[in-house]
Fold these 4 entries.
Entry 1:
Amino acid sequence: MLGFEFPQINSLLRWKDFFTSFNKIGLIAVLAAVIGSVVFLLAGRKDPQVAPTGVRNLAETSIEFIENGIVMETMGKDGLGWTPFLLSIFIFVYLCNVPGIIPILYMPATARIAIPMFLSLLVWVIYNGVGIKHQGVGGYLKSTLFPPGVPKALYILVTPIEFISNIIVRPFSLTVRLFANMLAGHILLVTFALLSQAMFQATTHKIALVPMGILPFFMLLFITAFEVLVAFLQAYIFTILTAVYIGGAAHPEH
Amino acid sequence: MEAFAHLAAATGLTGAEQKTANAAIGAGFAYGLAAIGPGIGIGYLVGKSVEAMARQPEAAGMVRTTMFLGIAFTEALALIGFVVFILIGL
């Protein structure tokens, strides 16, 4: 009746190259990196003695948010040295997520698996490196693979589980969480946009379908507002998990 | 296989079409089933967190952080289901 056909998933996610191997995803990622750096460099040039205004206000708020909301909650005072790293991850992931709802761009760069996967591999290298640096190779393996307080015989069962969950599943779930959330949001937006377009331009049953097209359109508006929240929340969750992993590797529970 | 051949003959679909149809059904089930557990889990988790925040508003910040962490871990299963849905369904 409606003749509504959902497009192939590739047509939603694959973009034409501007030039060799540089498409919209690459452009968004580069923009995210450049905008993030420029905002913080501009903020850094302002006079710290006067009350903060404009970009400096933004920069100070986000730094405070990372320090109080993420570092102090998960790593404590010792982790404050990690603030710059976590702040860069947060800003980059957020600026990669947000184009999912910005007109013209309309594509979260993190909805392709490359960027989340690279970030999680980076996090994986860092938290393993931090663990080895703080506890030595043997100590790190001992504290991750042989958690204290477990009866000796159970280590046959616990050690493989700990190995899989700490070394293999962590980067995988970090990747999939960010990637699948942004992809799901993108597909939802496309679904309701196409649905409202199909209903507004219906050729049959016009009297019923054209006014009813307002319903998917409202849903589209609602999901756009929801995506604002999701973009922030996913960046926050990615950062806080990074902080938890690094904190856990640096100071294992005794 | 015999049964599939009979089914295909009965519905008038070729083997490849039948396979696509089965994949579509399987994809729907994959996502639906994967969403049940995390749905219950997140509901329970957030409910308990709200309870804790209402009882001790001064601990709200800590509870909220832990809640988001818990949601992140719980949600991962549903998202893996979603990825499987896309892999086999589209």
Entry 2:
Amino acid sequence: MKKFFKAIADFFRPQSPSRKAFFERVVTAIKRNAQLRIGLILLAVLLFVAFGAGLLTSRSPYYMYDDLKQAPNSTYLLGTDGLGRDVYTMIVYGTRVSLMIGIVAASISGIIGTMVGAIAGYFGGKVDRFVVEFINIFVMTPSFFLILIIIALFGSSITNVMLVLGLTSWTGNARLMRAQAISIKERVFIKSAKVIGEGNWKIMFKHVIPNGIFPVIANTTMNVSGAILSEASLSFLGLGDPNVVSWGQMISHGKTYMSPAPWISISAGIAIVFTVLTFFLLGEGLKNVLSPKLQNVQGGE
Amino acid sequence: MARYIGKRAITGVVMVILSVCINFTLIRLAPGDPIRIMAGTDNPNQAMIDTLTKKYGLDKSIPEQFVMFLAGIAKGDLGFSYVSHENVVDAILLKLGPTLMLSLTALIIAVLLGTTLGILAARKVNSWWDKFLCGISYVFDSTPSFWLGLIMILVFASALHIFPTSGMVNLRVQSKGLGRILDIAYHLVLPVTTLVCIQTPYYFRIARSSVLQVMAEDFITTFKATGMPRKKVFNKYVFKNAMLPTITVVGMSIAFLFSGAVLIETVFAWPGMGRLLIDSISRRDYPILTGIYFIISVAVATMMILIDIVYGIVDPRIKHDQPST
């Protein structure tokens, strides 16, 4: 146990010059880039709400109270919905669902995109041509339409939604990773590694992917917001998982009570805007920080 | 050029067949049986189920059905709807008009507005005006379109009673000629405004970032250094180069127009392709689904080729006759 804490403490102690420089660079980047700064603050709020849901409310998002369509008051901070559920509690617990869907779907697309892109770019040749053609066909299919059909016909469990969203959005990541791999594999250190006798797969995982992953990370952060929006849209069309409380479903439910109880849809919508905005700003900030060419033009403030 | 276009056209046809094939198989592999819906759920009669299955060719294997479907396309026949027994081509054409009216209007306004604002923001980069526009664009980019539509209805239709809540025409007043056009335009305002709000940030950011990127190029710095007037540098060199990404994006957006704005059409009860799509999915209306998908694929393939041609005209650096491209 002691060893474990020591290891953590060692990691954070800026002892080696390179790590110190790394932390300093991160701090400067956050200081200089407004989008990244605001995004991180919003993310902290979101994570606090998601993990501290039990602290923020003592109610259950599924419990139906006797007061239907109550306007916001001191008992029900954001009112109740058409079934008597507390809107505030639903919003708080909905954060978990949205974050999970967004992050899992974006991670699936990030991992697949990185692997496919790295293999295509690094090995080149026939594999590369096949992947490029495949991506071209994929780009031509209207993805939301495809998601709609798959979810509607194969069932709308939350696992299905995350899988489909992930599997339909990896092409952007693959393109970025492929471009990176093509440029990295010509560098001297890769050639040296080859001369030493390291295997292709080892080089790919040890050098190519770690050195080229940054644009994919920025893009994956953006994909989180895309996935959250798509899930909300699916829920709105009645294709969400009926067993979980999600913001999209709240809007869909609130649509029926739009004029007598507008607070249901309005509060859920604001929650979506807030969350999507967070990941959008983070992604933009990361992209600007990680691409030095644009930094001179639009860097920070 | 002609040879290049011919080659692209062949690739386009292959892509259309491939993507329709995937879609065709996917729809038919899915659980749910259209025959059970057609035969009725109360007291299905085995003889009727058999007759219907045979009539619609659903007793054959999926590859056989696909060949039949392709043969139908060659004759310009996409089959008949399982539910309304309408000709699929007619059913789609009926919905295509309203969809194009809504989406194309919104697209044109959004492209013009977004590009203009993007160029203005890029020319005064890091000014308060630029920051204000960027901030607004982030917020609208994060807003779900259907929610914005609901808010529009709540504010402008329910509370202020300025615009109608939904639909395309006022069903109580059967007007003709100019009256009908005005009626449709009146019903168009809210859905178009919503779509414009959602789409403008996209074109804004593309225009802004590509102008910035071109301005950072060395040849622009050289022009400025030689003392060429800023206005001339911008109009003659920056603008033309910066418009290339916008052309691609607009081309793709036009191609996807045909699928309709599913969410906005649902919110505003607009009788377009998006609604047709949602209804067909819930009714397992295979012919309509494959028909819509086929039309979208053809539109996308056509637009891809058109974009290439436009690129060749706008950017003389791209020469299609070289073997490398």
Entry 3:
Amino acid sequence: MSDLDRAIAQLRACRPIPEPQVRELCYKARELLIEEGNVVGVDAPVTVRIHTIPALRLALMNGLQICGDIHGQFHDLMELFRVGGDVPETNYLFMGDFVDRGFYSLESFLLLLCLKVRYPDRITLIRGNHESRQITTVYGFYDECLRKYGSANVWRYCCEVFDYLALGALVMGASNTLGTSTSTSTNESGTQLTEEEEIEIEILNSAGDVMSRIPRSMAASSDNHETVNSSPLSETSRGAPARSGPVGTGATSDSLGSVGNPGGAVLCVHGGLSPLVETVDKIRLLDRKQEVPHEGPMCDLLWSDPDEIEGWGLSPRGAGFLFGADIVKLFNHRNNLSLIARAHQLVMEGFKEMFDASIVTVWSAPNYCYRCGNVAAILELTEDGSNGGYIPRANGDVNRTGDLLGPVAAGGQISGPGRRYRVFEAAPQDSRGMPAKKPVADYFL
Amino acid sequence: MPASRPEIKAPRPRLPLLNPSNNHTFIQPTKRINDGQDIANFLTSEAYHDIVTFLMQLNASMFPTVIPTPEGEKNHIQTWEAGTNAVVFSNTVLKLKVLLEDLEGIIAEAPPDQGPRRFGNISFRKWYQIVESRLPELLKRNLPAQVRSFHQDGQDETSPVIELESYLLGAFGSAQRLDYGTGHELSFLAFLGGIWKLNGFATTDPGVEERGIVLGVFVPYLSLVRRLIKTYSLEPAGSHGVWGLDDHSFIPYILGSAQLSPPITKLEELPSEGSLPGAPDPAAVVKALIVERERHRNLYFDAIGFIYDVKKGPFWEHSPILYDISGVPGGWAKINKGMIKMYNAEVLSKFPVVQHFPFGSLFQWQQDPHAMPPPVSAHISSQPARASPSSAQAGYASAREPVQEGTRAPWAQPTSMGRPPMAATAAPWSRHPDRTGLGTGSTHNRGIARDVDAQAQSSGDIVGTRAPWAK
């Protein structure tokens, strides 16, 4: 067992690793992260389904799980891995805010960092607004490090890593449809139906049972899928079979016609857009290796929020901006994106799609701050199996403005990828024993 | 229980009253703390001195009191629990109680919105607007006449009520951000202190009217605030997460620990150790049954009880600072003293908390000539500096109030809605001396310094953490 594996095992048990080890880990992580671009290219991996052997299914279910804020809720992060599938079998993309507010920022962040160093291609970490020196001194991570190590060294090492985290990620080649469900339990008799239905959105509970399934025809007409019943009985307008045949066989067809497959890429960023960033390429040009500035494009990407406004608005957070549907749609169109996935805002239901599903907020900290009573969610994307599994990639560059007049111009919007949300609640807490009281602050000496 | 080292002290200061026969010019209070550097000015201002004096005055009044009895008989110990008959409420206290009840009644007119929401409920804005519109009338009805007409000869002069209104309106959380924190609590303290300065409270022996203020006004204020927090899901204002003392409150921990401290004979002799005989053990905060029993009479346990009401999870995990404090040897007096030091450092000295506190004629920005110079400490210098003028943003300004839940930038300037104080209950570790490196000055200011041991006041903070752009 390597040192790294030992560290992973120790952190999985929620025990911090010694300071020298943190130092080494952070050094390795920086070496790794420095090689990443500001916008990491991530492929939506193939989801292999073996329907006949349910026991194997979970192990092979290696889609890409996109996760929102964690905020030091370590036990809930473990629950997230349980729900989404373990590393390295499952690929993960975390959209920042690993630290602050919770009790286990340190354990959570170090575990994610260990996994990143151990499985660099399986884990993508991008920066949140809390991955900053100034914010962590105000919102708790700094206090936590001092308390757990007695000095600020570990906090300092972590902050140095923060400066190297990517600002965004582009998920390429995500399938437009979920095709059939991977759920076994509920809909056995109705499987034929789902085969014929182009499932755009699927909501699963933490046990993997389908709670709700929304075909594209309905998802397109309704932004509020909570109201959509889970039995998708409505006739789909297209009779084509789902494009989810065995990967590599070419047994799938592109039923979306001119709104072709593969759809646009999915941009993942912690906060949102910036008035100073019109294209994804602009993000690539930033000098990211620094503390998060108070303003400017890098700040906005980590701080902004979508809102029901037109254009840009002042953010009540004092950093970043508010941006409306028009901004998102123009940006997606201009950059050939089908969706922006972001985190940054608590959503009681765990995720929230806005603006005709052109942007989604994913929130992965259940019962946030021990009190909000919210559920959490992660978003699973799977690889498009059409075209024999071939996905044109331009080394992460999707700013193919020349292509825009093709599929997009007609609808104005690329149809979104198939989105599977796994919703989960806070981990049970009975098993956590009460620790010894620590020495108090000097106020009380 | 007598203090181990009797000290000769001057009588405990009370907040001085303004003389109604002197001319006094009232002004609309305005924000003066614009960046981290202004904290040093605040800590030597008249306002700071008055706030601290008033808080210490309330604190001392809550210590149990030894009632002398004829010689030979056992002294009677009078405690000051919530609900005790031993505290008689003055007219002013009763009126303010009514005022708070009226404010609470307005909740029924602004029921929480049932629509989709993030966390904070937007109907709080409606409550706030109704309060704002009715406040002049409510204050007219519930403030003593001598306060409302405090030396006003000219008709067009600014009324003292304008100043009080400003503090009262700032005491219930931010309608814009749908949050509540210690900055708002501070604003209520200033509201009460303002009435005090304007001779609004009864003239009594030291401690008597103060106890009425705590049990008759402050306790109902806390219950109103808690109802607001629960009804509208107000979030913690700028909190250190689990590493802060409490998501929303601080003062109840000061006053509540005073209630359980050893009895005293004179207000000026506050013990720094020990507990009231029979007081619940500080460690009882993790015992739900004891908390439930004590919360109805003690402010400390009342605050703990509220945490249990709103939080799910192990106490030591969601409230580790309170958990550790529950193991402090030295009893409730020790905890009381520590809380006061911590309040000074983590509330009054923190830019995010006090930045929106408005200064007028009652609480003056003007320097206190007797104040000790503030320490040149890393703590103060590492306060966030003013954000560079975001003129770029002004052009995008949108008039509507966004629904918002989440982290605010600590350098945030108020956007549209005037004066919502942003609060932060902070963890004590941020001032631990072992990483000072530079400037271990001490925060010895008048007022709190009298109650605080010099040695424990190291105030170095977060060396090396200043953001590169901080001025």
Entry 4:
Amino acid sequence: MEKFQTLRSGVVPLPIENVDTDQIIPARFLKATTREGFGANLFADWRYTSDGQPKPDFVLNDARYLGHQILLAGKNFGCGSSREHAAWALYDAGFRVVISSYFADIFRGNALNTGLLPLQVSDEVLQGLFEVVAQDPQAALTVDLQAQTLTVPGWAEVIHFELDPYKKECLINGYDDIDFLISQEAAITAFEQQRSWVF
Amino acid sequence: MAKTLFDKIWDAHVVREVAGGLTVFYIDRHLIHEVTSPQAFDELTARGLTLRRPEQIVATADHNVPTRHQDQPIQDPLSRSQVDKLTENCAKFGVELYGLGHQYQGIVHVIGPELGITQPGLTMVCGDSHTSTHGAFGTIAFGIGTSQVTQVMASQCLLLDKPKRMRITLDGDLRPGVTAKDLILYVIFQLGTGGATGYFVEYAGSAIRGLSMEGRMTVCNMSIEMGARGGLIAPDATTFDYLKGRRFAPQGENWDRAVAYWQTLYSDEDAVFDAKLQFDASAIQPMITYGTNPGMGIPLSASIPVLNGGSEATSFDKSLRYMGFQPGESLLGKEINYVFIGSCTNSRIEDLRTVAAYVRGKQKAAHVEAIIVPGSKQVEQQAIAEGLDKVLAEAGFELREPGCSACLAMNDDKIPAGAYCVSTSNRNFEGRQGPGARTLLASPLVAAITAVEGRLVDITQYLN
């Protein structure tokens, strides 16, 4: 996993609530057996017509937001299917942060395991961020993971965000859970020897 | 100290707690399928690791398989390669595989219970969000991403923060024509599509106790549709009767020991929940969804709500535009062209019996394409043994071979753009059943009646 420390980037606004992982990456693109290349089909049905032409009214096809690495989305982002491919697709398309007022549980975990930061803010802050981007599509936000802050141009105060301290360390250092779990081998073996509920 | 059912099972599976409030959590059973496992096997190989407990893993091919001519090679090269990859990986790593053609093949959440792999008090995971289905047995079961699939493969554990606990109590008798599917669609409508995010839900009350195991699985299956990590129902005589004699259920003396333990799995009277909700089950009516998430449900005979502004207005309008519906409109009389009966929500023998009982001696409407996809080879064989295949065929329904099919349309079973499909599956997301497809979620009974009438009707007028 790549390290994540700080990011200064413009935003791609997607003011839709309950964006499910079927929208992020439709099921018909899940036939690959590797992790790479899902970005090309990110939001495929919102982004392209049935004959593969870009839909001009979809935000990912709007030149003003090209290259921006922060996705700003309505609440309950990533609900539905557990497909980690959704996080891979966002990452592959260049996103490093998704900001929303809350995330579906499985997506949040998948994002963290992919090196994509799910940054949760209040409904009010989310609304304010949509307004900032509406006024200036090039407004650049700064995410500082160590300090757990989000800096917004024109705002007097930085926004503090929460993140599990262990997950924070993982992202900053590019670690994942496997190394940690493998290191627990002795405890796991001891545990297995006293399982009494398997008949 | 008084404990909830969830706490009892959770506490028994804590290997250790680590700094920051995370838990090294032990997984008893791991189900895998062709779509979310190949990258996990590759990651394992890339790190020089192997499966820690291959005997605790069971594999099947379901998401991406055709539902016709399963005895022949898969036509779609990408699907074939994914299914072949599962077969290769299972052979290489020593995992039991119930692949195409095997007598136990089927949808992962149908075969686990019917083989007795799913048992009370266990923890189960699968790279599929509908793993919550297995909670019907008093099992902590939940969906995980592929990185977590790798973690369980390598360590038999996950690093988790403990979810909050919610209890949803449904007391009262269900009305005629109201099923487990209507019950859970009603609950999701009440909570909204994200209303249980962060929680593990225990379903309780007389209406839940009165459900068959199939019905309880339907309820727990859709827990994820309101954001819950999983759903749980305390095991009881219904659970034990269902499990007894199944292929991997405990046998002989072990059975008695198992039941003695399982009988301790319930929430103590004074147990504390983080949230408690209560609904009157007798008020529930046959349900249908009108929008593009499972929380957008209404009683079949009600009208689509009218929204007055709010942050959700944009999403609501987008949803109705996609569906081709107007706020305030009734769905009764809407012509339907497709009926899909299947998926891990409603493809069990009880569902097929419900459909067959209604359509016996009737004919589907000429303009409706009605397909019925059994959840497993065992369900298919049981349906044939009971003669349901003939009843369905005579009524114009096409009985296919097992798989996830048009629930997520990874295979060829797709609904055309713009067409309406009444579906017994679990998700009505945009494009879920094919690009542009419009899905209306409902019970198998509503689906059967719709197929015969060719349009949405108030089903209470059609019951015997």
